[in-house]
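Summary of Year 1 activities. Much of the first year was spent building the evaluation harness for sequence design. The harness presents a backbone, in tokenized form, and records the residue chosen at every position. We chose the following record to illustrate the format because it has been used consistently in internal testing since the harness was completed.
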């Protein structure tokens, strides 16, 4: 998980401005640095004032850039939040997969716990990005909601994939319904969203045993 979280860290933390003049890095490097700085700034602004009140100007100012630079990367704030969402969800899914692969031969409960820990640890480490992913994206329009639905499907597919592997090696029953994995994904996302919005429970890691009980409960009585 460390490699995936390091990637998210580069997204989440402000990148210093690139040197100028003859010491300047290649254009693609500068643009990558700018984009990461804009992502970090956007997450901060979205978390502080909400998506509806955020502006391209505020994001650019937070990043220490001109509004023109913002528009070199994104058409508008909707494009920005969708790009940030796509980047962050890819990193979180990679962290979950990495945790699952490390425990691929373990008992199902151990694999569930490892994946839940990876997901919740990423949210805990990067609260601004977590709020963007789970709260602000909901109010960002139809395109953003389509991305959210696609991300939920991806998480559900991963959960189903783990269950299929465990079933094939005789370690667990198969889910009774193709919707079971989506029910777990949706419940976990809503639990995490509620924690971010309300602060309950006090620490997001307290949701780990809840996720484990939810998943193992469906496996215990698949009929």
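For this record, the design step produced the sequence shown next.
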């Amino acid at each position: 998980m460390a490699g995936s979280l390091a990637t998210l860290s580069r997204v989440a933390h402000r990148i210093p401005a690139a040197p100028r003049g003859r010491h300047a890095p290649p254009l693609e490097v500068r643009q990558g640095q700018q984009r990461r700085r804009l992502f970090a700034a956007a997450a901060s602004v979205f978390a502080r004032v909400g998506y509806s009140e955020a502006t391209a100007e505020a994001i650019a100012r937070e990043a220490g850039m001109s509004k023109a630079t913002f528009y070199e990367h994104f058409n508008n704030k909707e494009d920005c939040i969708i790009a940030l969402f796509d980047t962050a969800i890819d990193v979180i899914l990679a962290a979950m997969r990495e945790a699952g692969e490390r425990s691929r031969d373990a008992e199902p409960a151990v694999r569930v716990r490892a994946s839940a820990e990876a997901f919740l640890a990423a949210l805990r480490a990067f609260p601004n990005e977590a709020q963007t992913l789970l709260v602000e994206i909901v109010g960002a329009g139809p395109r953003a909601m389509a991305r959210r639905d696609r991300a939920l499907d991806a998480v559900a597919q991963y959960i189903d994939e783990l269950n299929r592997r465990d079933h094939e090696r005789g370690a667990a029953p198969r889910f009774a319904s193709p919707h079971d994995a989506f029910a777990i994904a949706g419940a976990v996302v809503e639990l995490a969203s509620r924690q971010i919005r309300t602060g309950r429970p006090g620490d997001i890691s307290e949701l780990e045993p809840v996720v484990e009980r939810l998943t193992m409960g469906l496996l215990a009585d698949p009929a």
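Residues 78-220 form a domain with the Tetracycline Repressor; domain 2 fold (CATH 1.10.357.10). Quantitative recovery figures across the full test set are reported in Table 2.
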